Amino acid sequence: MARPVYIIDGSRTPFLKAQGGPGPFTPVDLAVQAGRPLLARQPFAPSAFDQVILGCVNVIADEMNPARVAALRLGMGEAMVAFTMQINCGSGMQSLDTAYRYIEAGDADMILAGGTEALSYAPLVFPQSGVRWFAKFATARTTLSKLAAFLKVRPSYFNPVIGLERGLTDPVTDLNMGQTAEVVAHLMGVTREEADAYAVESHQRLARAQEQGYLKNEVEVAFARDGKFYDHDDGVRPDSSVEKLAKLRPAFERPWGQVTPGNSSQITDGACWTIVASEDAVKRHGLTPKAVIKDSAWAGLDPSIMGFGPVMSATKLLKKHNLTLQEIDTWEINEAFAAQLLACLKAWNDETFCREVLDLPGAAGQIDHARLNVDGGAISLGHPVGTSGNRIVLHLVNAMNRLGTKRGIATECIGGGLGGAMLIETV
């Protein structure tokens, strides 16, 4: 029989906006900064876990399998099995889902599941033409052949592209993620004014959460090697306004596009961990669960409309459990782009979309804005790709406990044409 799987605790680093060069922390550095205080406050040894699972998309060359490197640096023991997974924006949620499945099946009792990403460490990539030239030059055997190869060099061979730019472009449709947001915004009639207004509210909600101390039980202070410390998400702009955002030019579809730097998620570094455990582990260690993972669902769709991923995956989850949108008390939908998120909300409220795409008898209805991303989201926090799926689950649990709500869903769109959703109930 399937066993219940509990969320026990979790923590994350502050999300730090990329500032034009490598930030103070590598992916593993971030994972260690988030993990040390989390493990230190537990009533069991770090070696008590069965596994470590970590989502990471932008793995750097010096930290292959960052899950294992982080586990060793966290003092979890040489015997600790640790592996890294990558499913683009869903990596942090997939780590939780994999842990959930292991524990549910009885193959593990306690797993540390997380996500980490240092987008500021995205490498510079040389054009393929330059790589081919270098290969010919490096393999030339004689001085004459080396000279002949050298004379064929072109300045364009040394014009690097930021790897992140390539990583955020779908190789099948050749559309970058911002362009796919424009597609779904166009299909659902999202206006620039609506997108900007949503972005402003995201910043206001995060600023309020910081002022009220709502994130104190979630965000750990991160200490860099040079002695500097970071204690808050630094991408928030409390003074943001619709008037200010209206002055920004569209980033991808000029002049009429809806997506701008002001209403998109920020390029950010950050890590998050969540402890999941079986009922046996809860009793053995005297733990107090915060929530139980009820189920998860994943969905695939055309990569050009990947922004509808939350609609597809969350609806799949709702159908399976015979629930409606209105029966979910609290929602976390990752704010990849304001226009994309608003397109999802409009899709659920569109009778034709719900009938023809979701196979529902009619419109699913509206999500009360007061129950959605109550403390802001990726537009104000940032979107460290491999981390966000873990963060939205952890924050959903914390927000539900604070608000006294029972049932919640965390969901996200995923580059490549995927969506993921997780159903949570507080204990």
Largest sheet: 10 strands, mixed
- Count of beta strands: 14
Mean pLDDT: 95
Structural class: alpha+beta
Give the ordered list of helices and strands: EEHEHEHEEHHEHHHEEHEHEHEHHHHEE
Q: Determine Rg (CA atoms, Å).
A: 22 Å
Compute the number of helices: 15
CATH superfamily of the domain at 177-214 and 293-426: Thiolase/Chalcone synthase
Strand fraction equals 15-25%
Q: Low-confidence runs (pLDDT<50, min 5 residues)?
A: none
Q: Between the first and last Cα atoms, what is the distance in angstroms?
A: 20 Å
Estimate percent helicity: 25-40%
The CATH topology label of the domain at 177-214 and 293-426 is Peroxisomal Thiolase, Chain A, domain 1
- Tell me which oligomeric state these chains represent: single chain
Q: What is this structure's SSE topology?
A:
Elements: E1 5-12, E2 16-17, H1 27-40, E3 51-55, H2 66-73, E4 81-85, H3 91-104, E5 110-118, E6 124-125, H4 128-139, H5 143-150, E7 161-162, H6 163-167, H7 177-188, H8 192-212, E8 222-223, E9 229-230, H9 242-245, E10 268-278, H10 279-285, E11 291-300, H11 309-320, E12 330-333, H12 338-348, H13 351-356, H14 378-381, H15 385-403, E13 407-414, E14 418-426
Parallel strand pairs: 3-4, 3-5, 12-13
Antiparallel strand pairs: 1-10, 1-11, 2-10, 5-10, 6-7, 8-9, 11-14, 13-14
